[in-house]
Amino acid sequence: MGRELAYAQLVERSITKKYRKEIWSPFITAIKRYELISEGDRIAVCISGGKDSMLMAVLFKMLLRISDVPFEAEYLVMDPGYSPANRDQIEENAGKLEIPASFFESGIFGVAEKSDESPCYLCARMRRGALYAEAQKRGCNKIALGHHFSDVIETTVMSMFYSGQLQGMMPKLHSVNFEGMELIRPLYCINEDDIKAWVRYNDLEFIRCACRFTEDRDASPDGIGRSKRQEIKALIHELRKTNPYVEKNIFNSLHAVWIDTFPGYKTMEAGAHSFLEEYD
What is the pLDDT of residues 77-111, one digit of tens each? Predict the structure, then answer.
């Protein structure tokens, strides 16, 4: 008679068996395609307590056991001001999934909620800075965030609709303010719907953002409220009814930008350019 598997082992098995095509293979694809992990890396796997970052932590735990590239992982949880119930939920899930999470405190929710100007942007920027600082203090050279395929698509469409520019989300980038640090996005090729399916299959429950702006959104009649991201998510869902490849096409377009067809473009180093500069 075979040995009965622990819950965390069953969750991992669901990734390599039932969701191998939807989760495990895209995870490995992103790691290899974008060269996210190098020999000797010490990666801070940043856990917010939501479904995406918790899945990422499980994936890293699995990868560490089989990787041909030697690296280390630190499972880092920043508490930006969670309620006791949300903090307990994160600790409980980390225990169930056998993730050796290490917590540190910050008061970012309190600071962001006092801001009337783009509090979500301020919160995200502050959280990233705090994660970089803590990770660097612990000897890490990279932080891993749980942004997925759907985030990439939605960010691209949002930038067109509300910022008047074509802007994507990179699978990795160098930190501007923390020398020697990088940010990587290992879930870059994993669709959010597949993450949700994995959560349901394993009967898992995770926290959401847990700030008052998310609560206002969830309490709104349409589930969108003031959230532009939720608005774009709903739009893409509608488009998918008549074009099942819409998300894949947007994603592929980010890898095949035909710069000669654009009248203008920007670079970080040199700013804005016009096609007229080289027209003649």
Answer: 998 888 899 999 999 999 999 999 999 988 777 66
Q: Which residues contact 41 (CB under 8 A, 6 or more apart)?
A: 71, 72, 141, 142
36 Cβ contact list (under 8 Å, min separation 6)? 30, 144, 171, 172, 184, 185, 186
- The owner of tokens 């000897």 is 139
DSSP labels for the chain?
-PPPPPHHHHHHHHHHTTTIIIIIHHHHHHHHHTT---TT-EEEEEE-SSHHHHHHHHHHHHHHHH-SS--EEEEEEEESS--HHHHHHHHHHHHHTT---EEEE--HHHHHHT-SS-HHHHHHHHHHHHHHHHHHHTT-SEEE----HHHHHHHHHHHHHHSSS-----SEEE-SSSTT-EEE-TTTT--HHHHHHHHHHTT-------SHHHHHHHHSTTS-TT-HHHHHHHHHHHHHHH-TTHHHHHHHHHT---GGG-SEEEETTTEEEEGGGTT-
Model confidence pLDDT, tens digit, residues 174-210: 999 999 999 999 999 999 999 999 999 999 999 876 5
Residues 116-145 have pLDDT tens digits of 656 666 677 788 889 999 999 999 999 999
